[in-house]
């Protein structure tokens, strides 16, 4: 009878454990990465986030600082908010992102945790019938160093963007299929829009960010740019006293002849 009772208790404990959803245990673990933005390669599990719901990931390794976030859809629009939480009531960085087509132009970004225990929230603000898939994990090389290496790349274009609503644009050749965009300040606040346009004022993707420290939490976005006529536009929404520097670098190209180089130019 004692053996039967013990077996019953073990079975009950196992049944209780099986009822705990794995996605509630949101601590990420490292994967062997190659800098890919494929959500399946970023994390072992890709979270499906229905409209008007959220998912959180916990990051507890204070020896690592850069987190890779990728959000996509099945081709429908993407409306998401991404927040960095440190401690019980501090949100040092907030982002709002939109994409007209989350399959062609997924939301891809790097976030800094300031080498602290942090939580990242992805909130799907779209309608309930427009779910998104999100993947989140500590970035592996070369992306873990990308925020620091990008300004020193010989092909990067940069512009000083005054506060008070100043706008700068970056134009590039149709052969460019992906660009990296970095915005940072000298530790002052960063409050800006970054938009990907195709044809005049046809916004395909945009990201709005706010952080109290634009150096520790610089904005690093990767835009997929299929087709021709793409432009990256940056607007500094902060007061005049808070300028920022914008960097744009083409990282994927197609149809280039041997010996040719992509052209990316800065507009006013």
Q: Brief description of this entry?
A:
By secondary structure, the chain is mainly beta. The protein has helices at residues 2-18, 39-42, 146-149, and strands spanning 47-49, 54-59, 66-72, 78-85, 93-99, 107-112, 118-124, 132-138, 157-161, 167-172, 176-184, 190-198, 203-211, 219-224, 230-236, 244-253, 264-267. Strand 4 (78-85) and strand 5 (93-99) form a beta hairpin.
If you had to describe this structure to a student in words, what would you say it looks like?
With 268 residues, the chain is mostly beta strands. The protein has three helices and 17 strands. The strands form two sheets. It has a nine-stranded antiparallel β-sheet with strand order 2-7-4-5-13-12-15-10-17, with no helix packed on it. It has an eight-stranded antiparallel β-sheet with strand order 1-8-3-6-14-11-16-9. The chain starts with a helix and ends with a strand. The model is unreliable at 1-6, 8-30 and 257-263 (pLDDT under 50).
């Amino acid at each position: 009878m004692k053996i039967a009772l013990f077996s019953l208790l073990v079975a009950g404990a196992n049944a209780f454990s099986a009822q705990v959803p794995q996605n509630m245990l949101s601590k990420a673990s490292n994967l062997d990465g190659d800098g890919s933005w494929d959500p399946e390669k970023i994390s072992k599990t890709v979270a499906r986030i229905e409209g008007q719901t959220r998912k959180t990931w916990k990051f507890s390794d204070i020896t690592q600082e850069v987190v890779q976030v990728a959000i996509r859809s099945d081709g429908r629009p993407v409306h998401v908010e991404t927040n960095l939480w440190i401690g019980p009531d501090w949100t040092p960085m907030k982002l709002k992102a939109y994409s007209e087509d989350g399959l062609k132009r997924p939301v891809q970004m790097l976030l800094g945790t300031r080498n602290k225990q942090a939580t990242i929230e992805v909130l799907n603000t779209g309608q309930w019938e427009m779910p998104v898939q999100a993947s989140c994990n500590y970035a592996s090389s070369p992306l873990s160093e990308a925020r620091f290496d990008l300004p020193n790349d010989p092909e990067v274009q940069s512009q000083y963007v005054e506060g008070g609503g100043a706008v700068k644009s970056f134009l590039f050749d149709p052969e460019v299929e992906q660009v990296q965009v970095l915005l940072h300040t000298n530790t002052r606040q960063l409050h800006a829009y970054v938009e990907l346009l195709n044809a005049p004022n046809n916004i395909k993707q945009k990201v709005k960010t706010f952080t109290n420290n634009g150096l520790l939490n610089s904005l690093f976005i990767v835009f997929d740019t299929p087709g021709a006529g793409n432009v990256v536009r940056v607007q500094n929404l902060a007061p005049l006293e808070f300028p920022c520097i914008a960097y744009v670098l083409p990282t994927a190209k197609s149809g280039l002849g041997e010996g040719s180089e992509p052209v990316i130019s800065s507009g006013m």
